[in-house]
Amino acid sequence: MSKKLIPMAICYDFDGTLSPGNMQEYEFMDKLGVKAMWFWKKSLKFSKAQNADPILSYMKLMLEEAQYKGLPVTKDYFNKCGKNVEFFPGVAEWFKRINNYGRERGVEVSHYIISSGLREMIEGTAIAKEFKCIFASSFMYNPSNVAYWPANAVNYTAKTQYLFRINKGCCDINDNKIINQYIPEEDRAIPYKNMVYIGDGDTDIPCMKLVKLSGGHSVAVYNSRKKDRKNKAQKLINEDRVNICANADYREGKKLDKYVKSIINKIELENKIKKLEK
After folding, report:
1. DSSP state of 57
2. Which end of the chain lies in a sparser environment, N or C, as judged by fewer CB atoms within 10 Å?
3. Is the distance from CB of 19 to CB of 84 less than 8 angstroms?
4. Segment 18-34, tens digit of pLDDT
């Protein structure tokens, strides 16, 4: 009989966390022929003028600009855009290495995306298969597979609900029964203390704080090539929102790799202590 593994979750933001840029900027905006700064500035201006959610605003602008330029906004096209998304060093090899390290220590590591970006683009990336669930903003599509309306908008506070879903083992965002059902902590799919949240920006702060307060570990990553990003990440430590900050370098032997492996070691040791106490 095989040994039961201890469940662990690593939850990631996407833009600025796994990828150095916003996913819409790699192909979609190039095809539109617009500058990223212009697009995001226009989106923010619309959001403020309409007192609207910023995520819904950028999604609306994507559809409007694409329609104006005659660009297809099908699910297949968004998937195609995802194929051109770039990643920080070591991301491609990260998942297999961490999974193997966990299994060697009796820990089953599952990976989750919690992003304000587009699920359809993330699903088109080379690493999409590594995630158990991808929680992200998405569109509704007509019978011709053309996007016409937002289906889900994941803003900074909405992100926290997905931690509850991961905790209870519910990936179906339409399932409100399990998420609201009382389940004793010891019977939940993945305890908060076995969670790691990795993010880079303001939209991640509620998740970072929730995981840290609940006994898990929160990590603020930064792009070392961009000015003041390290200081911004350090500020989150000073404000007691995260446990650690690290360069967004996922290669073996780097700070992020060592920290996550140390958490796996901790989970293994806590489980051994718990068994001895019984």
Report:
1. H
2. N
3. no
4. 999 899 998 899 888 99
